[in-house]
Task: inverse folding
């Protein structure tokens, strides 16, 4: 598949000192196995200047670029499966912590640092790096910023964009945007940081970031609570936020099907309840020294029980029990994968619409494909992973023809309630059609105008977010 | 000054139902009295569709638009003093609270609602609207978003952009961007919200916003503390954040000169200290029910005293004393105005650079203009208002010739330390030259490309942020 021209281009880059190799299979795959890359080259620049060199060469030759972080994206944004074969540009060699300033709660990172490495660097300095998600050992900061990743700490600290103070990036003409400001306040022109964050590599390659750090919570209390239904869960969230404020650092909703499926796929996992609940909340309070989150949690549990919001539950009594609770929660996506979803959705809703959606959706979905619905997610953020599975004993094949219709229906219901068809995973290649269908027309026109203005040759991650022209 | 063509254009808008009047003098002035508008017309649309009509008419006729909020901006962004006389578009009649959702902590506002009105609406629903600043009775939400205003609550809640979930705006072609999402998470394409916020009306007119609300702090403790120097102030901030976390809702630095000038201009104001301190901190802790911020504050005060960080201070013992403390702080800008600054600066620095700047700057400034330096600001955000005044008894005239050189010097020192020459006031017309001088070249090129792509005729707030072409 590699032409002489491809080879000549790769050789020219190598002559400028950039490491270029035929792309190994791992660069051509993605976790959901939907998009498949084609053989080509991967460039492995060692610093920002090399990224600039690579982009300039691609711009001059009209070669497309596939930016590549940790490869953990869930919407195919990291794998080009259509159009001319691009040059993959992986920032894995740019993996230095450039500087850490514990006294000002900031860290400056190469984009190729993994989320776990950033956490470790912050911990070594006695601080907390506020981003956390399942794929954090592989996911890199640059990729996380490109898709504006969410995860487990959004309720307390926000999305990745909310904890990013500044970025360095290479724009589509190869120029270097020097925006590594470590400032809380900087009103000096258009906020290109926020424009690039979430643009999924279609407007430039993020090469470095200045990120916020936080004090490490001195004390943590974790509880698994049984609630009657999602409405009660939201009332419980309101109670928690009213009483514990920003100390509420996690508020995860888990539906009955997830407990069933965990028993099916992970019988060894420690189940938090003997009788599987219809709906449960995994919540956590984290506080500084001087406060007693366990006491707060116990008082909240009691008051919620009195108020009829909670019918059962457990406050973790040890670090081991806390770890078991979280292990259970974090294994759910793997259980989902093993069972194999017919259709999966990463949706968000205004909190006041969330219970209505969960009440309405199952019947509507059953009319198309009567499978099992597993719902879990970051309730505190209005973000649900709302997935449809075959009935136990059935295979996916019996349903897959209706997968697309199910997703259309779910997204239609979500959008009608003011929600989003992509809460934290992004658009990538998977949801390009959804964005064209559901996106605001003025927004789409402005996006295209900006894309054309900054990347007139369309070399940056062609086919992601916006359709290929 | 009004031509027949101007009159005909105004009449045509009026025929479409839009209220159009000759602009009263208040639309042609700004608080610092530097920029002066020229007589023209002001359009007063009553809803978003009318804004769209007005913009379409201006786009068709090539007429410039001067968006106008509350008129409180401090960098001349609201007053056009050069180039063709624009149509002023004021959103003062769009002043409805569209909806409030206390249970999901969101409020949807017309852009013409004032900050005070938004606060009142939130309070009536038992919630807190997190934006607050001196000009809040006049400042409107749309203008606040246009400049990404800061203010007194940034430390805890962030800048205005950080508490905005979604915007509605009219783009330069008159199309309406429907982005009033009430979602914490929404990764569906480029974040035009963040691009428009802080673009100071040069990319569109914000007509509505969905904003976050918060639980009202049940208890507040306020203290005025004397610190040795800015380095000690930063160590004190670190201690406060470590111990009280997000409960630290204000951390304001005030230098000696401000106490002197307050005594000069406001002898009736209650001074917090008999002996004026060289440096003082006004700080506040706000917590939910169950916590005791006064106890936390007292313990922090004692520990800071033990550690040698604080030498004197007072924890407010009553609502009246708390109000006196804040009244003192909030009157400082007025005292500054009465004395009359030679040069004033709205700068931010990385926290670890802040003490070094404050140590270095006076001598360098004295070499140019040996006046009195008054420094106050939001230390927790790294944001200082760093202003130079005549020595007592002198007039400004003796210094004004060196005003520009002083500002150049201050900004040069700030930029060298990774800081910003505009922390919270924006660029407006006042700092267009500074942005061209200090702005990153790749950023400036991208800004111009975006401006041209979205506003090819250059009708939106011509001459603000970017120079007139």
Result:
């Amino acid at each position: 598949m590699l032409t002489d021209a491809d080879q000549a281009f790769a050789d020219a880059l190598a002559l400028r000192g950039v490491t270029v190799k035929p792309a190994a299979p791992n660069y051509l795959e993605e976790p959901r196995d939907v998009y498949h890359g084609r053989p080509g080259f991967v460039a492995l620049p060692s610093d920002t200047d090399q990224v600039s060199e690579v982009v300039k060469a691609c711009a001059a030759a009209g070669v497309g670029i596939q930016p590549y972080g940790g490869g953990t994206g869930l919407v195919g944004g990291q794998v080009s499966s259509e159009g001319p074969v691009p040059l993959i540009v992986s920032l894995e060699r740019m993996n230095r912590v450039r500087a850490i300033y514990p006294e000002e709660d900031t860290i400056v990172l190469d984009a190729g640092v993994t989320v776990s490495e950033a956490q470790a660097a912050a911990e070594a300095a006695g601080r907390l790096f506020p981003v956390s998600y399942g794929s954090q050992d592989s996911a890199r900061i640059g990729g996380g910023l490109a898709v504006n990743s969410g995860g487990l700490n959004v309720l307390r600290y926000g999305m990745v964009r909310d904890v990013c103070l500044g970025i360095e990036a290479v724009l589509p003409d190869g120029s270097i945007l020097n925006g590594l400001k470590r400032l809380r306040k900087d009103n000096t022109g258009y906020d290109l940081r926020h424009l690039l964050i979430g643009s999924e590599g279609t407007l430039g390659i993020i090469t470095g970031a200045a990120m916020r750090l936080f004090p490490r919570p001195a004390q943590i209390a974790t509880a698994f609570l049984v609630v009657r239904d999602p409405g009660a869960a939201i009332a419980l969230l309101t109670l928690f936020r009213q009483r514990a404020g920003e100390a509420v650092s996690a508020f995860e909703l888990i539906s009955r099907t997830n407990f069933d499926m965990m028993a099916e796929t992970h019988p060894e996992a420690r189940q938090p309840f003997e009788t599987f609940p219809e709906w449960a909340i995994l919540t956590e309070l984290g506080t500084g020294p001087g406060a007693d989150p366990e006491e707060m949690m116990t008082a909240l549990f009691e008051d919620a029980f009195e108020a009829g919001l909670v019918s059962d539950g457990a406050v973790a009594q040890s670090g081991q029990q806390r770890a078991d609770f979280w292990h259970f929660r974090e294994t759910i996506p793997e259980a989902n994968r093993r069972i194999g979803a017919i259709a999966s959705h990463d949706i968000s809703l205004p909190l006041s619409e969330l219970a209505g959606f969960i009440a309405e959706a199952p019947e509507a979905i059953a009319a198309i494909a009567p499978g099992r619905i597993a719902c879990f997610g970051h309730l505190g953020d209005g973000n649900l992973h709302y997935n449809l599975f075959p009935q136990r004993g059935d295979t996916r094949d019996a349903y897959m023809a209706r997968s697309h219709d199910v997703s259309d229906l779910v997204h239609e219901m979500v959008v009608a309630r003011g929600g989003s068809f992509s809460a934290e995973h992004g658009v990538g290649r998977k949801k390009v059609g959804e964005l064209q269908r559901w996106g605001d027309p003025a927004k789409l026109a402005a996006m295209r105008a900006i894309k054309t203005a900054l990347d007139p040759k369309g070399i940056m991650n062609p086919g992601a977010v916006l359709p290929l022209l």
User: Anything to note?
Assistant: Residues 97-215 of chain A form a domain with the Uridine Diphospho-n-acetylenolpyruvylglucosamine Reductase; domain 3 fold (CATH 3.30.465.10). The mean pLDDT of chain A is 95. The two ends of chain A are 23 Å apart (CA to CA).
